[in-house]
Structure prediction request, 388 residues.
Amino acid sequence: MSQRLSAPARREQILDVALDVFANAGFHGASMNDIAEAAGVTKPVLYQHFDSKRHLYQALIEEVGNRLRTNIDKATAEATDGKSQTELGFRAYFRWVADDHDGFRLLFGSGSRRDDEFNDAIRKITAESARAVAPLIAVDIDESHRETLAHAIVGLAEGASRRLVGLGQDFDPDAIAAEVSALAWAGLRAVTPR
Amino acid sequence: MSQRLSAPARREQILDVALDVFANAGFHGASMNDIAEAAGVTKPVLYQHFDSKRHLYQALIEEVGNRLRTNIDKATAEATDGKSQTELGFRAYFRWVADDHDGFRLLFGSGSRRDDEFNDAIRKITAESARAVAPLIAVDIDESHRETLAHAIVGLAEGASRRLVGLGQDFDPDAIAAEVSALAWAGLRAVTPR
DNA sequence: ATACTGAGTTACCGAATGGTAACCGGCTCA
DNA sequence: TGAGCCGGTTACCATTCGGTAACTCAGTAT
Prediction:
């Protein structure tokens, strides 16, 4: 049945397959047997590459998080002003969502947030996005409120994406990004000092 | 140890205690024994009031969802124009979050989204919020995009709340609501027909 | 030929957990 | 006073699932 693969190749394949399985069934809903079967091997093989189910899951969160981070960083690096930074950031975000539905569901789908260890990893990811957003609020405002608003903006993208992914259909990320970023930018400009 | 309660009283107490336990440990992380112990009874008592663990959880989602819905509906009923509708809606939302941390975490914390059945229940709740938001986008725009933007706005509140609840401290819901609703309203006004 | 390497399998264990059958004991009312 | 209602308990079962020890077997280098 199963092709014999080199260790690194098998590891990659397992990560690939596990993302699919976890995204669809969740951490608790997916058993190691399920993943092994989907990968065309047996359980002990998984344990040759990952110490535990948790480690496998954590590795996935890490990897998917990196993909997201990298995409956004690359996209916004070119921007000079806040407005285009906003536009490019959202575009990168929605493009990522559009072609990594499984990744989105793994991180934000969720069920990952239930576990303290996983939740921390995911919070780190959203916190990074928020840190990129915070400076776009130009007005003088309480630091803690600025952080909260930044997280709200991140939630904006998440809320839209959850629906889009939930619909199951493909969507045009650039079109969505244009509208959402327009909303976000206008909103950010409207924040006033108290 | 355990006080002898009437059936309806016990049922209420179980719901109360279960919300606490589930909110903190998640659906899978909390065992029926945990809940029974927290309620000061034994497992079979739970099964006298709820058919299964899932039914108990579902009942909680339903109840918490109703509280949220009711609060928002009551608050926005008095509003005449879109702007104050937005303000009052967000204020009701954040007030609910502020005094029902456990409820918020149960619905959006989450882990509830992992299960199809639970996810549907929660989607229904956010979809209702979105339906209230959608008419605030006055411009002529594709219906599906309008829906997506409405969900984005709901995500706005969720994103802010998740951070606030995550910090573990109490917060002033009205202050947050003022800022977030200002952001949302300005953002909604900025959506342009394509 | 032989011995080694390393990917993969079979078969199993132990713990946790959802759920249930059978029983208990105090209160109330005829 | 005794029957029965009802809230509650003890003790148990069945199953799932993470994790592991021991083994197989093909290729390869000597």
Observations:
- Residues 4, 31-33, 43-44, 47, 52-53 of chain A lie near DNA strand D (CB under 10 Å from a C1').
- Chain A is about 75% helix and 0% strand.
- The longest helix of chain A spans residues 53-77.
